[in-house]
Protein: SET domain-containing protein
Organism: Acer yangbiense
Amino acid sequence: MLLTYSMPGQELVCFTLVLISQTSVIYPIKCAASYHTRIVPHPPDLLKWVKREGGFVHQALKISPQQQDDTTYGLGLVASQDIPKGSLLISLPHHIPLKFEADDADSRLSSSVVSTLWEHLAEELWAMKLGLRLLQERAKVGSFWWPYISNLPETYSAPIFFQGEDIKNLQYAPLLYQVNKRCRFLLDFDQAVRRNLESLKPNDHPFGGQEVDASSLGWAMSAVSSRAFRLYGKMTADGTRNNVPMLLPLIDMCNHSFKPNAQILQEEDKENDKSQIKAETDIKQDNPLLLNYGYLSNDFFLLDYGFVIPSNPYDTIELKYDGALLDAASMAAGIPQPNFSSPAAWQQQILSQLNLAGEAPILKVTLGGLEVVEGRLLAALRVLLASDVETVRKHDLNTLKSLSAETPLGIANEVTAFRIIIALCAIALEHFPTKIMEDESLLKQGVSANSELAIQFRIQKKSVIIDVMRNLSGRMKLLSSKDTASA
Ligand SMILES: C[S@@+](CC[C@H](N)C(=O)[O-])C[C@H]1O[C@@H](n2cnc3c(N)ncnc32)[C@H](O)[C@@H]1O
């Protein structure tokens, strides 16, 4: 089904909706377009608009397409000459950011209908809350923010827009679950919006009479999740200031790096807050301005921003803690008579303290990232492999959870725990339908941009697992050599 979403006097944006299964999960999908493409072909000059509105833009800044190692970053900000560390790069007066604060006269929506919808959204759906505001401004003829909105990308590469085949191409259940959840939310919210809008007179319509559907809601949510910053909002009655998500025109043209050369700052002033970025390092001519969006896993980068970071040190994989799975892993590791499914009462007690057993356990555990093995999983294995309750009780939970606390329960206990985690990793790898080599050869053959993104994502997940296996094998070797030396 092809749907169109049109705005008066503005370009058409097309979306397709594809029915994936009988359970009526429908995924909105974008038209093929480059991530450079803006919602109008020749939008107004954003730098000039910010300056005209009283903002400051460093004279060496320009907007241009960004590419690195075959990856397109869309547009970005670039230094056209050397900029010294500490320089002010951009400063936005308080009226330029697009935000939504409940008591904000500027942002009071013209229709109580949208306010009602907004109130029904849970706090974690802040991207949709601000998205509604963005859609409203996009629909408004003569909006103050039109010079900004017209410079936004026409399409996004977040997986809610992937075709069914590319969603499957991700091969990673926790992400598939999140994508499904977002798609389902958009479809349900689409219905709620329609119900609220259907009886309105044209003059009361909050979106200028334009149809709002799952695709346009998805566009708005992706625009916000990939560009908004959480900064201080207005001072509340008790003198505190809430964190408010806001869109910062021009500043949001900065792409991401874990080694940024620019930093976002808020000049706190009761009446007249300014959102600014400053140079955190010297910036050489032709270098892009880069901000750190956060130390996030690739799941968040892909879901919210539509890109994947190769060799991301913060990337992790999720596993479900399960005694039977641990038994299977120890069998695979050649460790006889595993007994993880029926721990002793004292072990069960520690599992409850680790939140891996008891009334409302949190069974999601992670491997990879800076921690390598989530402390709760490591502690559980150390404890379940220990036969002597007294030795275990000599250590506090934090020591048992720490990989750098070397062999708290002895070398043999540690080596066995590592062997089981390595076997868990092997089981997790087996669950992926393809191997990295096959993925790489698919990429070499050439695939669509979204397929490439999905395949890169799963390659990175498999790499996380392999890195954990390598890390633990290295530690095991070291322990074995220590053991031999001390024997
Ligand atoms: C805040 S916007 C930055 C401006 C954006 N490039 C544009 O064209 O409007 C964030 C988006 O930029 C792109 N991006 C930013 N950093 C990136 C990176 N390190 N690798 C790939 N894409 C990146 C992604 O499309 C992301 O959703």
About this structure: The chain has two domains: 2-294, 316-486. Residues 2-294 form a domain with the set domain protein methyltransferase, domain 1 fold (CATH 3.90.1410.10). The pocket of S-adenosylmethionine is lined by residues 35, 71, 73-76, 153, 226-227, 252-253, 255-256, 305-307 (CB under 6 Å).
